[in-house]
Write a structure and sequence with these properties.
The complex is a heterodimer. By secondary structure, chain A is mainly α. Chain A has one domain (31-81, 91-287). Chain A is built from 13 helices and one strand; from the N terminus they run βααααααααααααα. Chain A starts with 17 loop residues before the first strand and ends with a helix. Chain B has helices spanning 27-43, 81-88, 121-131, 136-150, 165-177, 195-210, 222-228, 246-258, and strands at 4-17, 53-66, 70-74, 96-101, 105-108, 183-186, 214-218, 231-236, 239-245, 263-265, 277-285, 294-296, 301-309, 316-324, 329-334, 349-357, 365-375, 379-383, 388-393. The longest helix of chain B has 17 residues, at 27-43. Classes of the chains: A mainly alpha, B alpha/beta.
C-alpha cells in the first residue's frame, strides 16, 4: 500500500515531456496552443456552416429572407404605424432598420449558437482533447457567412433607394470585428455557465429578445434622451456596434462618446469571459 | 536510462458523486443552496455541509511505458480503465499526481467522434481526421487510403445518416486507423463492426504496434491483448493491481475470473445491463440441469441465462461469447441465430433462455462465458468479461486413437466417409 504523497512533490520531468496535473486558480490563456489548433477551428466552423445550410430546404435563402422580412415588418409596424423615424431624412426607415438588423442578427445568432455550443458538443468534450475555446469561437465565426449574404442584400437595398455608400465603408470590417468580439465575449460566459447550469439554455432566447429592445435596432440612439439614460444605453456594447455600423454604411453621425464606453465594456467582458472560460475549462469534460 | 514515452506518478482521479459529477446543476438549485447553506450552518453548527461522497476512480497509479512499447490495460467494467485513458489523453484533469508524456498523442476512445449524420462520407473523413488531430495536409495525403480501407466506395458522397451501421463503423475506423501519432491511446473500439472488419482492424493495429509506436490499449478481448501488446497491467477498483508480460497478466486475470465458478447470480437490479435489459443469472448446467463446473463432452450441456427486460425491442439479441483459456473467442452465439420463427419468445420481465452446446464439440481445458446483450447494430447493453467458467473433459468416444490430446480450441468429432 503506497502512501498518498502531496501533489507537486515530484522531481522535475526530463526535457521534452509535457505534464498534465491539477491546476488551481486562474489558468493562463495559452493563446499559442489555440493557434496550434487553428485547423480544427477551421473544420468545426466549416461543419457548422455546412450543416446549417444542408438541413434547411431553403438553405442559403434563409440568411437573406430572415432579416429582409424582419425589416419589412419593422417598417410597417414601427415606422408606418407607430411613427418611429430614421434620424436622417435622406435615409428611408427601411434602410435604417435593415442596417441595424445586420449586426444585431449576427450577434443574436452567434449567441444562440455559441451559448449552447459546449453542451451541444458534449461528445467531443468527453472523447477528444483540444483547447475548448475552439468550440465557442467556431460558433461565432460560422455566423459570418449569414452576415456576408445579408450584407449583399443591404447593398442592393441601398442601390434601390439610390443611397451611395461613403468612404466610411472601409471601416465596416472594423465594426464586424467588434460585433464578433462582442458576441464571443458574451458567448464565452454563456457557454461555460451552461455546462454548469443548464438553465442558461432557456435564458438565452429570452435574453436575446430583451437585449434587442435595449439596442438601437428599431430606433436611433438619438431617440434616447441625453444624460444618464443615454450613458446607460451605451453600456450595452451592441449600441456601439450598431451605431458604428450605421455610421460606416450610411454616413450617419459618428457614435462618438458612447462608442468608447461600448468598447470598454466589450474589453472587460471579453477578458473576463476568456479567463472565466479557461478556469472552468478543466471541469467541462467531467460535468457536461 | 530507458527511453520513456509515458509516465504517471501517483495519479489519481476523484469524482464527487452527487457533487461535481452530478449530471448538471440548475441555477435554481445553486441559488437556493446559497441561501440555505448558511442558514443550516446557523441551525446545525458543526454539521457537514457536503452531502456528496467522494469516489476515487483512480488512485496511486505509477506507470512507465517505454517508447515503442504496446501496453495492454485490462480489468473489469468500471475498474477505472477508461478514466485512466481519459486522464492520459488530457481530456480530464487528474485530481492528484501527474502525467508526463513525450510525443504527439492521439486518442481513440470511440470510433467516429464528431461524425455528423448530415454530412457525407467525404466530409466526415475530413472533419473526423481534424478532430483526431490530423493536419489538413495529412488528411489530403491519406484520403484515398482511408476510402480504400473503409470499403465504402461509391457511397463516399452520401450523407452518413443513410449508411448502414456497419458502413458507418468501417468509415470511422478507417479514419482512426490512419492516424500516425507517436503515442496512440485506444479504448475498446473493436467491439463494434462485423468479424471480418474487426480482423482487418486488428491487423492494422498490429502494424501500428509493430511499427515502433507507443500504444496503450484497453480491451476485453484477451486475444487482442496478447497478440498486440508486450506488457499488460490490470486495474481493479481504480488501482494498479498487477503488471508484467501480457501473456502472464492475461493468464492470471483469466484464472481470477475462473474462481467465479459455473454459476453467477445477481440481486435484482444489480446485474450487468441497464433498465432495458439486465442479467439476473448465468449458469452452466449439465443435461440433468445441475450446475456443472466440470462437463464431459459425452453429453450436451447448457448455458442458461436469466434476464430482466424492461421493454422488448425487436433488435434485442441475447447471447454470449465462449472464450478459451488463452483468451481466444471460440464462438459467439445469440438467441436470434436461428430463423426468426424459431427465436425464443421474449416478454417484459423475467426471461430464462437456454443454449445447448452439443456433445463432442469442445476440447479439454477451461472455458469462459462472457455474456453479450445488444440492440442489433445499435449498441451493446451487456459486454461483460467472463462471469462463469467451466472445465471440459473431452470424452474420446469409442475410438482408441482419439485418446491423445488434441490441439485447437475445439475438438469436434466429425463424420468421415469414403467417396
Amino acid at each position: 500500500m503506497s502512501i498518498a504523497r502531496p501533489a507537486g512533490d515530484w522531481p522535475a520531468p526530463a526535457e521534452g515531456f509535457v505534464v498534465y496535473q491539477r491546476k488551481r486558480g486562474w489558468a493562463a490563456l495559452d493563446l499559442r496552443q489555440l493557434w496550434a489548433y487553428r485547423e480544427l477551428l477551421y473544420f468545426l466552423t466549416w461543419r457548422d456552416i455546412l450543416v446549417r445550410y444542408k438541413q434547411a430546404v431553403l438553405g442559403v435563402t434563409w440568411a437573406v429572407l430572415q432579416p429582409f422580412l424582419t425589416m419589412v415588418v419593422f417598417t410597417v409596424v414601427f415606422n408606418k404605424a407607430l411613427g418611429i423615424k430614421s434620424p436622417d431624412s435622406a435615409i428611408p426607415y427601411a434602410v435604417f432598420s435593415y442596417t441595424g438588423l445586420l449586426p444585431w442578427n449576427y450577434f443574436s445568432g452567434a449567441l444562440s449558437r455559441s451559448g449552447v455550443s459546449l453542451v451541444g458538443n458534449a461528445n467531443l468534450l468527453t472523447k477528444v482533447y483540444f483547447p475548448r475555446l475552439v468550440i465557442p469561437i467556431s460558433g461565432v465565426l460560422a455566423g459570418l457567412v449569414d452576415l456576408a449574404l445579408s450584407f449583399v442584400v443591404l447593398l442592393g437595398l441601398m442601390a434601390a433607394y439610390g443611397i451611395a455608400p461613403t468612404w466610411h465603408m472601409v471601416f465596416v470590417p472594423v465594426f464586424v470585428l467588434l460585433a464578433l468580439l462582442t458576441a464571443l465575449a458574451v458567448s464565452l460566459w454563456l457557454a461555460a455557465l451552461n455546462v454548469l447550469y443548464r438553465d442558461v439554455q432557456y435564458i438565452i432566447p429570452f435574453l436575446v429578445q430583451l437585449w434587442m429592445f435595449v439596442s438601437p435596432v428599431i430606433y436611433p440612439i438619438s431617440a434616447i434622451p441625453e444624460g444618464s439614460l443615454r450613458v446607460a444605453f451605451a453600456l450595452n456594447p451592441m449600441t456601439g456596434v450598431i451605431g458604428g455600423f450605421r455610421w460606416a454604411m450610411l454616413g450617419q453621425e459618428f457614435p462618438g462618446g458612447y462608442m468608447w464606453v461600448s468598447l470598454a465594456v466589450v474589453a472587460v467582458l471579453l477578458v473576463g469571459g476568456l479567463f472565466y472560460f479557461k478556469r472552468m475549462e478543466r471541469v467541462f469534460a467531467d460535468v457536461v | 536510462m530507458t527511453d520513456i514515452a509515458v509516465r504517471t506518478l501517483g495519479l489519481g482521479k476523484m469524482y464527487s458523486i452527487g457533487g461535481e459529477r452530478e449530471k448538471y446543476r440548475t441555477l435554481r438549485d445553486t441559488l437556493t443552496q446559497a441561501v440555505r447553506r448558511p442558514l443550516e450552518r446557523i441551525r446545525h453548527p458543526g454539521a457537514a455541509t457536503h452531502s456528496s461522497t467522494d469516489l476515487w476512480a483512480l488512485r496511486n497509479i505509477d506507470l512507465e511505458v517505454e517508447n515503442g512499447q504496446a501496453l495492454g490495460i485490462i480489468g473489469r467494467n468500471g475498474s477505472g480503465k477508461t478514466t485512466l485513458l481519459k486522464v492520459l489523453s488530457h481530456i480530464t484533469e487528474p485530481t492528484e499526481g501527474r502525467v508526463e508524456i513525450r510525443g504527439r498523442v492521439a486518442s481513440l476512445l470511440e470510433v467516429g467522434t464528431g461524425f455528423h449524420p448530415e454530412l457525407t462520407g467525404r466530409e466526415n473523413i475530413q472533419l473526423n481526421g481534424a478532430i483526431l488531430g490530423m493536419t489538413r495536409a495529412e488528411i489530403k495525403d491519406k484520403f484515398d487510403e482511408i476510402v480504400d480501407f473503409s470499403e465504402i466506395g461509391r457511397f463516399l458522397d452520401t450523407p452518413v445518416k443513410r449508411y448502414s451501421s456497419g458502413m458507418y463503423v468501417r468509415l470511422a475506423f478507417a479514419v482512426a486507423a490512419h492516424l500516425e501519432p507517436e503515442i496512440l491511446i485506444v479504448d475498446e473500439v473493436l467491439a463494434v463492426g462485423d468479424a471480418g472488419f474487426q480482423k482487418k482492424c486488428l491487423g492494422k493495429m498490429e502494424d501500428v504496434a509493430g511499427g515502433g509506436r507507443t500504444v496503450l490499449f484497453v480491451s476485453h478481448n484477451m486475444q487482442a491483448i496478447t497478440s498486440l501488446c508486450d506488457r499488460a497491467i490490470q486495474i481493479d477498483g481504480g488501482r494498479l493491481v498487477n503488471s508484467g508480460s501480457a501473456d502472464a497478466i492475461v493468464a492470471e486475470y483469466l484464472a481470477q475470473q475462473a474462481e467465479t465458478g459455473a454459476s453467477a447470480t445477481w440481486d435484482s437490479g444489480k446485474g450487468p445491463g441497464d433498465e432495458e435489459a439486465r442479467l439476473v443469472s448465468v449458469q452452466v448446467l449439465d443435461d440433468a440441469d445441475t450446475i456443472a463446473p466440470f462437463v464431459s463432452t459425452d453429453a450436451p450441456f447448457h448455458v442458461r441465462m436469466e434476464i430482466d427486460l424492461g421493454h422488448v425491442d425487436d433488435a434485442l439479441t441475447i447471447g454470449f461469447d465462449l472464450v478459451a483459456a488463452d483468451g481466444a473467442v471460440v464462438m459467439r452465439s445469440f438467441h436470434t441465430d436461428g430463423s426468426p420463427e424459431h427465436w425464443p419468445r421474449l416478454r417484459v420481465g423475467r426471461n430464462a433462455l437456454s443454449c445447448t452446446i452439443p456433445a463432442g464439440l469442445l476440447n479439454d481445458g477451461r472455458y469462459f462465458v462472457m455474456p453479450r446483450v445488444s440492440l442489433y447494430h445499435v449498441r451493446w447493453i451487456v459486454h461483460a468479461d467472463s462471469v462463469v467458467s467451466f472445465d471440459v473433459h473431452r470424452d474420446p468416444g469409442l475410438s482408441p486413437y482419439a485418446i491423445t490430446s488434441r490441439p485447437g480450441a475445439i475438438a469436434p468429432t466429425l463424420d468421415w466417409q469414403t467417396c
